[in-house]
Amino acid sequence: xxxxxxxxxxxxxxxxxxxxxxxxxxxxxxxxxxxxxxxxxxxxxxxxxxxxxxxxxxxxxxxxxxxxxxxxxxxxxxxxxxxxxxxxxxxxxxxxxxxxxxxxxxxxxxxxxxxxxxxxxxxxxxxxxxxxxxxxxxxxxxxxxxxxxxxxxxxxxxxxxxxxxxxxxxxxxxxxxxxxxxxxxxxxxxxxxxxxxxxxxxxxxxxxxxxxxxxxxxxxxxxxxxxxxxxxxxxxxxxxxxxxxxxxxxxxxxxxxxxxxxxxxxxxxxxxxxxxxxxxxxxxxxxxxxxxxxxxxxxxxxxxxxxxxxxxxxxxxxxxxxxxxxxxxxxxxxxxxxxxxxxxxxxxxxxxxxxxxxxxxxxxxxxxxxxxxxxxxxxxxxxxxxxxxxxxxxxxxxxxxxxxxxxxxxxxxxxxxxxxxxxxxxxxxxxxxxxxxxxxxxxxxxxxxxxxxxxxxxxxxxxxxxxxxxxxxxxxxxxxxxxxxxx
Length: 487
Ligand code: NAP
Ligand code: MG
Prior knowledge:
By secondary structure, this protein is an alpha/beta fold. The strands form 5 sheets. The chain has a 7-stranded mixed β-sheet, sandwiched between helices. The chain has a 6-stranded mixed β-sheet with strand order 9-8-7-10-11-19, sandwiched between helices. A 3-stranded mixed β-sheet has the order 1-5-4, covered by helices on one side. It folds into 2 domains: 31-267 and 466-485, Aldehyde Dehydrogenase, Chain A, domain 1 (3-Layer(aba) Sandwich), CATH 3.40.605.10; 272-451, Aldehyde Dehydrogenase, Chain A, domain 2 (3-Layer(aba) Sandwich), CATH 3.40.309. The protein contains 17 helices and 20 strands. The protein has helices spanning 66-81, 83-86, 89-105, 107-118, 122-143, 147-150, 171-184, 199-210, 225-233, 246-256, 281-293, 310-325, 345-360, 392-395, 411-419, 434-443, 478-481; strands at 31-32, 34-36, 39-41, 46-51, 56-62, 157-158, 161-165, 188-192, 218-220, 239-243, 262-266, 272-275, 305-309, 364-367, 382-385, 402-408, 426-430, 448-451, 470-471, 484-485. The longest helix is centred in the N-terminal third of the chain and has 22 residues, at 122-143. Helix 4 (107-118) crosses helix 5 (122-143), helix 5 runs parallel beside helix 7 (171-184) and helix 11 (281-293) crosses helix 12. The structure holds NADP nicotinamide-adenine-dinucleotide phosphate and magnesium ion. Magnesium ion (MG) is lined by residues 49-50, 117-118, 196-197.
């Protein structure tokens, strides 16, 4: 049932006038050290964070040493053994609610800062990252005084000091995913944000200070990989929560082995978005676009492999080709922008390299013919057809706006291909048939399976991986378990 695809040509009738968000009221310091024991403290040395859309330096932030990490861990330990550890869940929840409300109050400013520091479109920071970060604190605030009901008969107890290391793709949201359940369960925290996006973590530190949390309950040590390693290796930490690449996750798993520290790892992915011939195709196209071009494809659970049933493959590819031409690529602060800046020069180089590999492997490249800004790090929305299972672009995470399209004939073949990667994080299924949806979902090795939608998140739904995508769950009642001793 191949339908001819008719292209409607509107010329330039759909050009948008610029709609830049003003940055006037978004305030940040020119220099941040660390946030330890309730205070902002100076660092020994500093590095710079740039705006990836303009390449301009925004501010400097501290490079945490082992001594800084040790101070933060000691402060967290004192808080755990002192006021925070002794506080009941009901009192703890009041602080967490306060943080949630303050994030909402400052939502506009936080969204602008997230976009400035990381390059994501303002409409995503504004409509996804910041509201979800607040929602996470609200959700876990509600659990703080109900832990015995979450795990009845188990006398749930906090672990102690949690060391947390997060990536750059959803900076504030990843901090919320880590901090909210840790606080709800009565733990204290030492967190390191990614080196390209520490700004909203510093604003969260201000919020935590203003919310009146006892000193040392949440500490932020800034820095690069070595600072993350210092947290992972600190002997007085009880639990490590890491979100990032599978390569670093493996290093951390080895480092933690035999130390008695609890560990959760949220790692990379190569999600399959499976489109059956009976799917509502126009909706599926939107889901494919959302699955891979949302946040420039810097999404661990991105639908970076499209598996489309052969009978509708030509139609889907033709529709997709037209759709990506309409994506607005450019200034992340413009409210019309769909695809913003790539987070860093390193990431742009990695995407460019992987796309070159795809071409050399013989896949056919389709890139939106958009004009990219002359400054900053940008990459045109791209997909590859004629991709085979063995191609590196079908196996390895690109973490950019690049989709690999593969085809299948039967549901069995779709399942086999979807599971044929070392990863198992997110995936999507598009079909009109509920029974097919449930059967295929049950057979996929993935922590999350979306049905006729993609990239939907809710604090009540647990999120996490299988295989090399890691272990442990964040979100939901299950997310509490990562921070509790239950016995
Ligand atoms: P990354 O290089 O692994 O970095 C993640 C964090 O770990 C950063 O804060 C990083 O510091 C730090 N780090 C680097 N080396 C370390 C070490 N040896 N010990 C301890 N910490 C260390 O990953 P990324 O490039 O920032 O993020 C992209 C990856 O994260 C992708 O693979 C993506 O799939 C994954 N991710 C997974 C999830 C999930 O929930 N499963 C969510 C988001 C992202 P620097 O910033 O200084 O490098
Ligand atoms: Mg930056």
